[in-house]
Amino acid sequence: MTMRKHLVALLVLGASFLFASSASAAFPNFSDCPRSNPEVFTCIDIQSVTGSLEIKGFTVPLGESLEIRGGINQETRRFIPPTGTNGFFSRTIRIPGGILGIEFPIPGNAVDAIAQLAGSPSAIVIDLEIPVTTIRLPVKVKLDNPILGSSCYIGSNSNPTNVNLTTGTTSPPPPNTPISGSIGTPSIGGEPPVLTLTGATSVDNAFPVPGASGCGLFGIVNPLVNLRLRLPSAAGNNTMIVRNNVAIVAAR
After folding, report:
1. Distance of CA 147 to the CA centre of its chain
2. Considering only CA atoms, which of 128, 124, 249, 137 is closest in space to residue 183?
């Protein structure tokens, strides 16, 4: 039996003696886990604490902006989102320096960004093997600024940024070199018992980032965004590091 199956068996054994309840704290949040779906064996909540996305040396802080929440079928690794959502929740972050690269309150310079899932929830794959866990998903980033308009994106559903975040060691093309994540500090507690991984670090530095599209009238501002963010950027030039808190509980 694999470590993953040991982990799941432990959760199910503990839950079988207890009544299920919804989490009331901000973390973990299992309140909308699709427990009624027979495919769902465990509920999971992954929330970023700190992190960054680096594109050719240009760094965008991620902070507490990312969350993946829903249910998982342990055998197929299929992710099932809460009803009415895609299971990928994100908060707006500010691009350092805005359009002009100047940290000064110039009207029209500030740029907000929000990460979005590029495609359907079925594209999210979460592998809960211990000690190496992986999260694979396609993302796009919407940029918000009066000059950029309402349809300015980095990546798209057809051409996303595919990240493969791991707590193990990466194998990127040059000039990047391998980096490693960590599983964090595991603990089990609560009623029903919740497995928590505090301070898990997930990394990826082997993905490309596509150029901008839809920025400004007829895409006229695309070159400015590409110049500012150094896009497109080939694999081996980009790094994503996210420090997460992860919580897992038996669905039933």
Report:
1. 28
2. 128
SS3 250: strand
What is the rounded CA–CA span in Å between residue 159 and residue 147? Answer: 23
Helix, strand, or coil here: 229?
helix
Tell me how crowded residue 122 is: count the other CB atoms within 10 A of its CB. Answer: 11
Q: Are 220 and 241 in contact (CB under 8 A)?
A: no
Contact partners, residue 212, CB within 8 Å, separation at least 6: 143, 152, 153, 154, 222, 225, 226, 229, 231
Q: Which of 59-63, 106-110, 202-206, 218-222 has the highest mean pLDDT?
A: 202-206
Torsion of CA 154, 160, 161, 164, to 10 degrees: 160
Residues whose CB is less than 8 angstroms from the CB of residue 227 and which lie 6 or more positions away in sequence, other chains included: none
Q: Is the pLDDT of residue 18 over 80?
A: no
Residue 11 has pLDDT above 80, yes or no: no
Instruction: Give the other-Cβ count within 10 Å of 10's Cβ.
Output: 14
For CA atoms 141, 71, 50, 65, the dihedral sign is positive
Cβ-count burial 126-164 (b if 16+ within 10 Å, e if not):
bebeeeebbbbbbbbbbbebebbbeebbbbeeebbbbbb
pTM of the shown model: 0.83
Strand partners, 37: none
pLDDT digit string (tens) for 172-187? 999 999 999 999 999 9
Angle at 49 between CA 60 and CA 82, to 5 degrees: 105
Residue 184 burial (10 A CB sphere; 0-12, 13-18, 19+) = buried
Q: Are strands 161-166 and 134-145 parallel, antiparallel or unpaired?
A: antiparallel
CB 28 within 8 A of CB 194: yes
Helix (H) / strand (E) element for 165: namely strand 161-166
